[in-house]
């Protein structure tokens, strides 16, 4: 592929990525707003620790939905690349029905199991009770959140990322307003503390999902028309969605296992380190947003290229993504290292306190690892867009279970490095992931799988 074509693909990738970055930043900000406002409550250390545990539970329970969106994007992108709009809407409808069922299941099962899950993560009784005040209403609103995720994913598959961003902008504005009122008791609203944070966020999710549905039904994106009318499940398609989606979901289980192991180890070393990890998760989520967003755009563009049977374009998309991801994540890493102390102050935490010191250590570990994270994330987009999600799972299993978790234990406990040793194994694991991702690209099995789908 010549240089002008490569530059055009790079521009298309950037144009598709920017609204996704904005959308994902807004999703993360919803949690960051909860954290920043709850940091101003009495006994903020316990509240922030509870938020740290709660966030991990939400991530853990969301893995099945992530798998479903990966499968939906893969099939929507290929149908769109082949010019089959009817197929696009068929995939959307089947995925919507699965999403609503999954959301209701998580809402019910999550509320029933919340105390035991939190206890299993190492939350002490006081933190457990506080975390439930936040977690229960948040889980009850899961169907709204999941539908928003699905619609945004399908729009990504057809190359329209702006509508979901605009809707998310409106819903996050509502989230800030409601949380400011319900957490702290402003504007005559009751001061519900951490529970108010969850209620405000759920209301914002409901508003966003309904608005997006209405806009799409009215033809905002001509090729995408959702419906809630029940239809019989298309078993072959559902089977295909599961075939591609379950390894992506399992991939997230492995990733969450890594984070759970970190929290479990931190809880045995120092409880306040769990609170620092909770703050760090917000920062990490924001830091990962640009790379993951480019990766999501990469997956959509590769799916479209494979749907059009254009392998050279798919390869060009990957390398444009690798360059862009690495450059962006390196810049963010340097900024994170330089601004760690001011960032901690945003959460009303003194950088000189033990909580502040540990939060800065975590952010510095993350910052130094972001360049190699960025390089690997591009290959995640390649593997998901081509449907080679089992390959991605194998890489994650190997690096997490064989390297990262044992390394965290050895560095944190055996060598006595404490929280720093537990944390630093996470970015180190991406060095191995990047090498394995490059090897899988060169083997070319992803292209064969994408051509068969």
Brief overview:
The protein has 453 residues and is mainly alpha-helical.
**Domain unit count:** 1
Helical content band: over 70%
Distance between the termini: 24 Å
Mean pLDDT: 88
Runs with pLDDT <50, length 5+?
none
The oligomeric status of these chains comes to single chain
State Rg. 21 Å
- Following the backbone from N to C, one meets helices and strands in this order, namely HHHHHHHHHHHHHHHH
Strand content: under 5%
Tell me about the biggest sheet? none
Structure explained in plain terms:
85% of the residues lie in helices and 0% in strands. It is built from 16 helices and no strands. The chain is globular. The two termini are 24 Å apart. The mean pLDDT is 88.
Keywords:
453 residues
Helix and strand arrangement:
Elements: H1 3-38, H2 44-61, H3 63-81, H4 85-120, H5 125-140, H6 142-157, H7 162-184, H8 194-217, H9 235-269, H10 271-307, H11 311-338, H12 340-346, H13 354-385, H14 389-414, H15 418-443, H16 445-452
């Amino acid at each position: 592929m010549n240089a002008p074509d490569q530059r055009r693909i790079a521009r298309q990738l950037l144009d598709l990525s920017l609204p996704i970055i904005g959308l994902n930043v807004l999703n993360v900000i919803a949690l960051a707003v909860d954290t920043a406002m709850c940091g101003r409550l009495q006994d903020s250390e316990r509240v922030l620790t509870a938020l740290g545990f709660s966030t991990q539970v939400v991530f853990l329970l969301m893995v099945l939905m992530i798998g479903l969106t990966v499968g939906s994007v893969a099939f929507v992108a290929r149908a769109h690349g082949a010019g089959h709009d009817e197929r696009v809407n068929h995939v959307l409808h089947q995925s919507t029905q699965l999403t609503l069922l999954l959301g209701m299941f998580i809402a019910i099962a999550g509320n029933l199991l919340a105390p035991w899950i939190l206890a299993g993560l190492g939350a002490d009784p006081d933190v457990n009770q506080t975390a439930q005040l936040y977690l229960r209403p948040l889980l009850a609103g899961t169907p709204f959140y999941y539908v928003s995720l699905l619609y945004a994913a399908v729009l990504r598959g057809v190359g329209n990322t702006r509508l979901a961003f605009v809707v998310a902008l409106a819903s996050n504005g509502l989230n800030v307003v409601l949380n400011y009122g319900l957490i702290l008791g402003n504007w005559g609203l009751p001061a519900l503390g951490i529970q108010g944070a969850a209620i405000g966020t759920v209301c914002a999710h409901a508003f966003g999902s309904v608005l997006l549905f209405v806009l799409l039904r009215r033809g905002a994106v001509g090729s995408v028309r959702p419906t809630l009318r029940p239809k019989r499940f298309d078993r072959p398609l559902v089977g295909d969605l599961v075939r591609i989606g379950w390894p992506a979901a399992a991939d997230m289980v492995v990733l969450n296992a890594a984070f759970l192991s970190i929290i479990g180890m931190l809880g045995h070393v120092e409880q306040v380190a769990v609170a620092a990890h909770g703050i760090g998760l917000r920062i990490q989520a924001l830091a990962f947003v640009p790379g993951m967003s480019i990766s999501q755009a990469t997956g959509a563009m590769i799916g479209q290229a494979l749907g059009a049977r254009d392998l050279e374009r798919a390869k060009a998309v990957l390398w444009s993504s690798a360059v862009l991801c690495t450059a962006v994540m390196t810049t963010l890493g340097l900024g994170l290292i330089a601004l760690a102390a001011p960032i901690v102050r945003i959460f009303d935490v003194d950088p000189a306190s033990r909580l502040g010191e540990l939060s800065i250590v975590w952010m510095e570990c993350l910052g130094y690892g972001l360049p190699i994270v960025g390089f690997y994330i591009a290959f995640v987009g390649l593997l998901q867009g081509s449907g080679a999600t089992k390959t991605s799972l194998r890489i994650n299993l190997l690096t997490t279970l064989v390297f990262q978790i044992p390394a965290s234990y050895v560095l944190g406990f055996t060598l006595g490095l404490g929280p720093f040793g537990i944390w630093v194994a996470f970015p180190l694991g991406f060095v191995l992931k990047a090498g394995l991702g490059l090897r899988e690209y060169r083997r070319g099995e992803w292209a064969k799988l994408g051509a068969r789908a």
